[in-house]
Amino acid sequence: MLTCPLCGTTDTGHFHRDARRDYRRCQHCALVFVPPHQRLGPAQERDVYDQHENAPDDPGYRRFLSRLFDPLSQRLPPGARGLDFGAGPGPTLSVMFEEAGHPMAIYDPFYSPDTSVLQREYDFITATEVAEHLFEPGRELSMLGDRLASGGWLGLMTKRVTSHDAFTRWHYILDPTHVVFFSEATFIWLAGYLDMQVEFPAPDVALLQKR
């Protein structure tokens, strides 16, 4: 029996199989995940990420990120300090928040691997199109929660599982670097586990606030 990478239970079962991979679903937190032996290695992952063409001067990319930026920025006090976790090869969300008056740090294991920024405390942390790539989401999201000040916000952007039928036809699972898939129920479980409150301002955005 495979262990859920989010909650650690072994209560997982078959959810779907396609020509490339298997997908398991946790009966406890509802996370859908790819078994560890079917993930890409670091070099293969990096090859995929290097193909991304995102940049701060791309208005389309900024519009995409605004789905998280707009609702989160409305909830922040002036000068709130933030961390963009998993910023990628062309950090842009951090630029948008800095333009709005929020000092930002960035971290990415491939492109900005300075782990010292993960030792500081922040008023908010963002992770856009990151959660679906995490091999150990339980450990990594718990770490981010620990880095938040009291009342701080964790803003996550990732497309959500809605049903088994939709999952079988979902383009999101075609990306070989996508290995974990959250549903609304998963985020509700996560909020309880991290002692946070959760809101869903958009179909692919979850905002969690530390109590």
Task: Give structural notes.
The chain is α/β, with parallel strands linked by helices and 211 residues long. It has a single domain (12-210), classed as Vaccinia Virus protein VP39 (Rossmann fold), CATH 3.40.50.150. The chain is built from 6 helices and 10 strands. It has helices at 42-49, 59-73, 93-99, 137-146, 164-168, 184-193; strands at 12-17, 22-26, 32-33, 82-85, 104-107, 122-128, 148-157, 180-181, 196-202, 205-210. The strands form 2 sheets. The chain has a 6-stranded mixed sheet, with helices on both faces. Strands 1-2-3-8 form a 4-stranded antiparallel sheet. The longest helix is centred in the first third of the chain and has 15 residues, at 59-73. 35% of the residues are buried.
Provide a short characterization of the protein structure.
This protein has 211 residues and is an alpha/beta fold. 26% of the residues lie in helices and 25% in strands. It contains 6 helices and 10 strands, in the order E-E-E-H-H-E-H-E-E-H-E-H-E-H-E-E.
